[in-house]
Design goal:
Elements lengths: L9 E2 L4 E2 L4 H21 L9 H12 L9 E2 H11 L5 H12 L9 E4 L17 E4 L1 H6 L10 E3 L6 E3 L8 H5 L1 E4 L4 E4 L4 H12 L9 H5 L12 E3 L3 H7 L1 E7 L2 E4 L4 E4 L8 H13 L6 E6 L8 E5 L5 H11 L3 E7 L1 E4 L2 E4 L2 H42 L2 H12 L2 H10 L27 H9 L2 H4 L4 H23 L1 H18 L9 E2 L2 H4 L9 E7 L3 E6 L13 E2 L8 E6 L3 E6 L3 E6 H5 L5 H4 L8 E6 L8 E6 L3 E6 L1 H4 L6 E2 L9 E7 L4 E6 L3 E6 L5 E2 L7 E2 L9 E7 L4 E6 L3 E6 L13 E2 L8 E7 L6 E6 L3 E6 L13 E2 L9 E6 L1
Parallel strand pairs: 10-19, 28-33
Antiparallel strand pairs: 1-2, 3-5, 4-5, 6-7, 8-9, 10-11, 11-16, 12-13, 13-15, 14-15, 17-18, 20-21, 20-23, 22-41, 24-25, 24-26, 25-29, 27-28, 27-30, 28-34, 31-32, 31-35, 32-38, 36-37, 36-39, 37-42, 40-41, 40-43
Helix pairs in contact: 2-3, 7-18, 12-15, 12-17, 12-18, 17-18
């Protein structure tokens, strides 16, 4: 391929088409598009907090004098101006933005005053732009009045016909007060709104400090405790400090729910920000249909134009606490809002913490005021020169005759030269001049080019009508402006007083803006277990991924050696664990996935296992374990029937999602034997079916972070022996050994010497006494109750107090009298 020209499809001069690399062109074009969207459309500018379309709407309305003290204008007229002159991206997008800027339920401080149907909190659309009218609000007209000065950088519009400001000179940080959001290529911004009075008070606090750059987040949170939305809702205090410190986090927003006993109803008096009322009600109905929320008889919406009042009528004898919790859990009564204070700063998208946002505003505001003061000095200086010229005219009447005579006989250029030669005495007004008097010859003052042009352009007949006293008063006023402004510029702290005055005036205009959303720690509302009693249960794993619960109180204590009692277990039991209904459990599958499940969802809310986790069709649950994670208890140990052992950090399993987390990979002819949780420094003892055992130090096994390994050999197995059980233990602990024939014995784990892994270990069961079923660590400080469950569902609970400690090869005593074809599937200390 012969490239004649790079990055060009068409040579315009001769209309010749050239071949270029498609990937290169696509990459270049998309990069340009991405930069344009990020910087010019979707992400707000840090200087005024507005996106381009918002800025263009406000500037068009200002430019057309559509301010708060003038009549409303049709929105169609305003949209036409914006689209035609500044924003060629479609009228629908412009109108939607304009409507949102005017909605009192979408913004804390509407920048636009509206007249007509501008939509509702129910989700109703605004009327067509030909019917609605708008103008700038009072606060907007005030905070942008610096546009009257030519002090803002301007850029050409999309077609080069007009100029538009790069940012607006706001006197308060609009983006922090009203919030803003946008999605660009690879970047998104979601700035939550805040209470205007709180933001202003925080700024007033900052400018009273010598160095407001040193302000801490905790200081600001004394004034701004959290976001404040235009609709009534509850903001969770969790994550707020992290949000303000980092500029990015997720916050939780909840509808206020209150139970009214007199009418047996839950009343919703507000809705989360961004949620439409009709969508909230619909989400409740949907959950009623799926039985996630039961006990509701009807929903009645009695909301008015300015208030939310949704009554959820309950059926008799229903727990309103449970229903409230489920409303928060399953419906739009509670939402999570991902916030990011992302702005365009220095032409780059950046996440900026709250304090830095406020510092940026104050820095930018300071620079705007400096520019304004300097412009006022320049303007006043020019006015003073003109006043001096007028003063000379009033004091030297002959100059008028001189100008007339010269103009009659010479050109304008020659007249300028003649006037430049003249000198005048201005000592009479010397004390009012803001200049350095030593550098000016007051008795032989010469006219400047500006003064000459002013005299020549002023009507001659008016020159002698000015009164000297009036000129001196104006001169005093202009000199005062110059001196005052120079004082401000020379002392930066004085500029802070101007900002303080502006903020105070804004505060008066916005005095009625009270906080809508209380900040509360509402973590308890969201916790499943807090509304339920903690029950001790046995969790049974049965075929086809079936999980059953049996309350521990159903099992009665008996003397050992009996046949046990039937507790009506309708399935064959594969494995079982003991835990409480407030504990989380880990589920492990044949394909090596781990899942975390809240037992409350299974036990109290009757959730099916496939509703909580996604198990593949060719996979099945093979093991259960309690999730006892802590800083000390932070290791998970996996042992297989082939004697392999693998150690993982447990922390990663805390966040195992619905799809699970792959943590191990074993061969097809191997299976998981036991899952253990513990801490470093423990001993791990491995026990085989044929009665071999080994104890090794857990620290000898390296912790792995990848799943694609089978681990290391823990115990070397003989013939067709398999690993049956494993425990984490410490020196000097007693172990209860239970055999397949129902016998059991107690011996000290010191009888099994600590060895290195990959050895055959020692015998602890004589073959004629049966195969091993389980090993349990006993407590020496208290009595031990042991629960045994058989495959037929029979159970027995007995005390170990009458079982004496023996040698490891002893026969033991009868623990349970098993029927033919019955076997022990579970035993545990309870």
């Amino acid at each position: 391929m012969n490239k004649k020209k790079q990055n060009s499809f068409l040579e315009k001069e001769d209309k010749e088409i050239f071949d270029i690399d498609f990937v290169e062109e696509l990459s270049s074009s998309y990069a340009e598009y991405a930069i344009s969207v990020i910087s010019n459309r979707a992400i707000p500018d840090i200087r005024d907090g507005l996106k381009a379309v918002q800025r263009r709407i406000i500037y068009s309305m200002y430019e057309s004098n559509n301010t708060h003290n003038y009549r409303f204008r049709k929105c169609a007229y305003i949209i036409g101006l914006v689209s035609g002159k500044y924003h060629a991206h479609g009228e629908v997008a412009i109108y939607d933005t304009m409507v949102r800027m005017a909605q009192t339920f979408s913004t804390n401080m509407p920048l636009i005053s509206s007249q007509g149907n501008f939509g509702s909190i129910d989700g109703d659309e605004a009327a067509a732009q030909r019917y609605t009218e708008a103008r700038l609000s009072q606060i907007t007209s005030y905070i942008i009045d610096d546009l009257n000065y030519n002090i803002i950088e301007m850029s050409k519009t999309y077609d080069g016909s007009y100029y538009e400001p790069n940012y607006l000179p706001f006197k308060i940080p609009v983006s922090i007060i009203n919030g803003n959001s946008g999605i660009a290529v690879c970047f998104a911004s979601c700035i939550p709104p805040h209470n205007p009075i709180e933001v202003i008070d925080a700024l007033l606090h900052m400018i009273k400090k010598n160095n407001y750059e040193d302000t801490k987040t905790d200081e600001i949170m004394n004034f701004i405790p959290g976001p404040d939305f235009p609709v009534k809702c509850i903001v969770n205090s969790k994550n707020l400090k992290e949000l303000y410190e980092t500029g990015k986090n997720i916050i939780n927003i909840n509808a206020p729910l209150e139970y009214v006993e007199e009418i047996n109803a839950i009343v919703i008096t507000g809705i989360p920000y961004t949620i439409k009322k009709i969508k909230l009600i619909k989400s409740i109905y949907e959950r009623m249909q799926t039985n996630d929320i039961v006990g509701i008889s009807d929903i009645v919406d009695e909301s008015g134009e300015n208030n939310i009042n949704i009554k959820i009528l309950l059926k008799p004898n229903q727990s309103h606490e449970v229903i409230i919790r489920r409303l928060y859990k399953y419906t739009d009564c509670s939402i999570s809002l991902g916030c990011s204070f992302r702005f365009i700063a220095n032409k780059k998208p950046q996440i900026i913490p709250l304090v830095e946002c406020l510092v940026n505003f104050l820095d930018n505001r300071t620079q705007i005021i400096k520019n304004r003061l300097q412009l006022e000095i320049i303007s006043a200086t020019k006015d003073i020169e003109k006043i001096i010229a007028l003063f000379i005219v009033t004091k030297t009447k002959k100059i008028i005759d001189f100008i007339k005579r010269v103009l009659n006989n010479a050109s304008i250029q020659e007249t300028r030269q003649e006037l430049k030669k003249l000198t005048f005495d201005i000592t009479e007004i010397a004390e009012y001049l803001p200049y350095n008097k030593e550098k000016i010859n007051l008795k032989k003052f010469q006219l400047s080019a500006l003064q000459i042009e002013y005299l020549l352009s002023t009507q001659i007949i008016k020159l002698n009508q000015e009164k000297t006293n009036e000129l001196i008063n104006v001169l005093k006023e202009k000199s005062s402006i110059i001196n005052k402004n120079k004082n401000y510029l020379n002392h930066p702290n004085n500029i802070n007083s101007i900002i303080e005055e502006e903020l105070t005036k804004c505060r008066k205009i916005l005095k009625d803006c009270k906080r809508n959303c209380p900040i509360k720690d509402i973590e308890l509302i969201k916790k499943d277990k807090n509304l339920y009693n903690e029950e001790h249960v046995i969790i049974l794993l049965c075929p086809q991924n079936t999980i059953l619960f049996k309350e521990l109180k159903l099992f009665k204590t008996q003397k050992r050696g009996g046949k046990g009692k039937d507790v009506s277990i309708e399935y064959k039991v594969i494995k079982a664990i003991q835990c409480t209904t407030h504990e989380d459990i880990l589920i492990f599958t044949k394909l090596g996935y781990a899942f975390k499940i809240n037992t409350v969802l299974l036990y109290y809310e009757n959730k099916k296992i496939n509703e909580l986790i996604s198990i593949k069709e060719n996979d099945e649950i093979i093991s259960l374990s309690k999730l006892n994670y802590s800083e000390e208890n932070n290791i998970i140990v996996i042992v297989t029937e082939k004697g392999y052992i693998k150690k993982h950090g447990m922390k990663e399993l805390i966040f195992a999602h619905k799809g699970g987390k792959k943590i191990y990979n074993i061969s097809n002819d191997d299976k998981i034997c036991k899952i253990l949780t513990g801490s470093s420094g423990s001993l791990v003892s491995l026990f085989t079916q044929c009665g071999r055992s080994i104890t090794i130090e857990l620290d000898e096994i390296r912790e792995l972070s990848t799943y694609n390994t089978v681990g290391v050999i823990g115990i070397k197995l003989k013939n067709e022996d398999l690993l049956q059980d494993a425990i984490l233990t410490k020196k000097g602990e007693d172990l209860l050994i239970i055999n397949s024939n129902g016998n059991g014995k107690i011996f000290s784990n010191d009888d099994i010497k600590i060895n290195h892994r990959n050895t055959t270990g020692i015998n602890f069961i004589n073959k004629k006494h049966g195969q091993l079923i389980s090993v349990t660590v006993l407590s020496k400080e208290e009595n031990n109750n042991i629960l045994i469950i058989t495959s037929s569902g029979k159970t027995i609970i007995f005390e170990t107090i009458d079982i004496r400690t023996t040698k490891r090869l002893a026969k033991g005593v009868k623990l349970i009298n098993l029927d033919d074809h019955d076997s022990i599937v579970f035993s545990s200390k309870i």
